[in-house]
Design goal:
Layout: H1 20-31, E1 36-39, H2 46-59, E2 64-68, H3 75-91, H4 96-105, E3 114-116, E4 119-121, H5 123-127, H6 132-150, E5 154-159, H7 164-167, H8 171-180, E6 185-191, H9 194-202, E7 213-214, H10 222-235, H11 242-252, H12 256-273, H13 280-304, H14 311-319, H15 331-343, E8 347-351, E9 354-357, H16 360-367
Parallel strand pairs: 1-6, 1-7, 2-5, 5-6
Antiparallel strand pairs: 3-4, 8-9
This protein binds adenosine-5'-diphosphate and magnesium ion.
Length: 369
């Protein structure tokens, strides 16, 4: 079920706002065999973009797979998720591996291989034989057969890739060495911890050093928001003028999820009062409600910052409009804290010694603490 204004997860094809050139660029690069890295804070649309790219490449005849590293706890799970996602291209079902297991449970030991839509699979999957790493190798091996049969590159997306380190510190090396032997695979790595990813992809002694080209995720341009919001509200007989669109983007800073959320709340406010025009009062109420619904997430974000000494203080300072560096603070210390809060995707540098919140609604939350 599609929500009217989608919030909280990847958006469907219809709700992807603009970023068309960027989407075309990523699609082209992956098709050509380039590996890419998109690192950026959470809830700005990385997964949405990746899924849209996969839909396009899939339509061109590529086999594609997305594996989310969140929630995966072992190399075995990674292998199974990858195999499932790959095989889904051909079987159309989500949990192929489990199905195969059910099938072979009753088969005789003499039958040593299974074939899924022309893709042969080793029995280690079906019988849970072999080590976790054998399974991973076998899952990646599925792509060999796919590429041969389609004559096209296989596209893999690893979402929240920084989580791989949490599973097993050796996995990076292993994965990289397997991937390197498979020129028919293009990888798109996504991650929400820019510093961790940076480390992994740009440090000489790390496994993925220079393995992928890192691209910044562009903002959604204001005029694209405007087209989208006007069209969406119009679909339900509601009008919104450029002035109100401007006001909405000003309070959310155009942050993808926050803007969607306020628009969504505005819609429900209008339904309650049986009105069909978005005005500033409606936006104000919608904003307050959106802020309330973000409270839990913001509390968590804020709480997490206590891990790093001085981070909360510094953020509070920036929220109140002050500059982070001041006479009585050690510049080296402030620099370290700034590096940390930027790595968390909270502040961005906007000029010399000047920092701004990436998410204005979070700034608002902090300044009310
Ligand atoms: N291109 C987009 N068009 C419209 N809304 C978007 C777009 N990208 C992100 N959003 C909004 O942000 C939310 C989070 O998107 P998601 O792709 O899950 O982000 P990420 O993977 O960066 O955490 C979506 O539910 C939607 O509200
Ligand atoms: Mg995501």
């Amino acid at each position: 079920m599609n929500r009217y204004f989608p919030v909280g997860g990847p958006v469907s094809e219809d709700d992807i706002i603009d970023r068309e050139l960027f989407l075309e660029g990523i699609t082209r690069r992956l098709r050509d065999g380039q590996n890419l890295l998109l690192a950026g804070p959470r809830r700005i649309g990385k997964t949405s973009l990746a899924l849209e790219v996969l839909r396009r490449l899939r339509r061109e005849g590529h086999d594609v797979a997305l594996v989310d590293m969140f929630g995966i706890t072992s190399a075995r799970e990674l292998a199974e998720h990858l195999a499932d996602a790959l095989l889904e291209n051909r079987t159309g079902i989500q949990r192929t591996v489990e199905r195969i297991r059910d099938m072979v449970r009753s088969a005789s030991p003499a039958e040593v291989r299974v074939s899924v839509q022309g893709i042969e699979l080793g029995m280690s999957f079906a019988r849970r034989h072999g080590s976790d790493l054998d399974l991973l190798e076998e899952a990646l091996g599925i792509t060999d057969k796919m590429a041969r049969s389609s004559n096209r590159r296989v596209i893999l997306v690893f979402d929240e890739f920084q989580e791989l380190a949490r599973i097993d510190s050796n996995l990076h090396k292993i994965l990289r060495s397997h991937l390197q032997q498979k020129p028919h695979i293009s990888c798109l790595f996504l991650g929400s911890k820019p510093t961790l990813l940076d480390q992994l992809f740009s440090h000489g002694n790390e496994a993925f050093f220079r393995y992928a080209v890192s691209l910044p995720v562009p903002e959604i341009p204001p005029n694209a928001w405007s087209h989208y919001l006007v069209r969406k509200f119009f679909e339900r007989g509601i009008s919104i003028t450029q002035a109100e669109v401007g006001a909405l983007l000003k309070i959310t800073g155009g942050h993808p999820q926050d803007t969607m959320l306020v628009a969504s709340e505005a819609y429900y406010v209008l339904m309650e009062i049986n009105c069909h025009v978005v005005n500033l009062t409606v936006l104000e109420i919608a904003y307050q409600r959106a802020l309330e619904s973000l409270m839990r997430a913001f509390e968590e974000l804020w709480g997490g910052l206590s891990e790093h000494r001085g981070a909360q203080q510094l953020i509070k300072k920036v929220a109140s409009g002050e500059r982070p560096y001041s006479k009585n603070a050690s510049p080296a210390r402030v620099g370290r804290i700034l590096a940390y809060v930027m790595s968390q995707g909270i502040l961005v540098k906007v000029g010399r010694g000047q920092y701004e919140f990436l998410e204005p609604m979070f700034r608002d939350y902090v300044s009310r603490l």
